[in-house]
Design brief:
By secondary structure, the protein is an alpha+beta fold. It contains three helices and eight strands, in the order αββββββββαα. It has a single domain, classed as Trna Endonuclease, Chain: A, domain 1, CATH 3.40.1350. About 25% of the residues lie in helices and about 30% in strands.
Length: about 150
C-alpha cells in the first residue's frame, strides 16, 4: 500500500506534467531512483525538473503559508548538509500546492534550502508566467505557446 506522502508526491508530478504538456514538446516521468522527477523537452533542449509538493499549511506569525523543503526525499537528518540537489541534478523546481492545484516554477539556485509562499499570493499565481520566467533565467527560450 502506498503511503500518503508518496501519493501527494505523485499527484504533484502528474499535475506538473499536465501543465508542461500544454506548452512544451514532451515530458517524461522518471523512475524513483532519478534525482529529477521529470525531464522536459522544450525547443530542442532538455530540462531536469524536481517536483516538490505540499498538502499542508504552515502557520507563522498569524499568516498562512505553503512551504517546500529542497532536500531530497531520501534526506538523512543525521547528515543534513551532504544530501542536497546540485546543478547537475536539477534545472528547475516545480513547487506544487495540492489544495490549489497550482504550480510555481523556480530556477535551481544553490543557496535555496526551502521556500515559503503566502497562500493568498500563491492563489494569484500564473503558472505559465512562472515557467516562462524560470526558463528565461536559465536560458533565453522562445515564448511558450499553448496548443490550439
Amino acid at each position: 500500500m502506498v503511503d500518503e506522502k508518496s501519493r501527494i508526491g505523485r499527484a504533484g508530478e502528474h499535475l506538473v506534467a499536465f501543465y508542461l504538456l500544454q506548452y512544451c514538446d514532451s515530458v517524461i516521468l522518471t523512475n524513483e531512483n532519478s534525482k529529477a522527477d521529470l525531464i522536459l523537452d522544450h525547443s530542442d533542449r532538455l530540462y531536469r525538473i524536481q517536483v516538490k509538493s505540499t498538502n499542508s499549511i504552515w502557520k507563522h506569525k498569524g499568516k498562512e503559508y505553503y512551504r517546500w523543503d529542497f532536500r531530497p526525499g531520501r534526506y538523512r537528518p543525521d547528515d543534513p548538509e551532504k544530501i542536497r540537489y546540485t546543478a547537475s541534478d536539477v534545472d528547475i523546481y516545480a513547487l506544487v500546492a495540492i489544495p490549489l492545484g497550482k504550480v510555481l516554477f523556480v530556477p535551481y539556485n544553490t543557496d535555496m534550502k526551502s521556500i515559503s509562499k503566502r497562500i493568498e499570493d500563491f492563489d494569484k499565481l500564473d503558472t505559465r508566467e512562472s515557467l516562462e520566467e524560470a526558463l528565461n533565467v536559465i536560458n533565453h527560450v522562445p515564448t511558450l505557446k499553448p496548443f490550439k
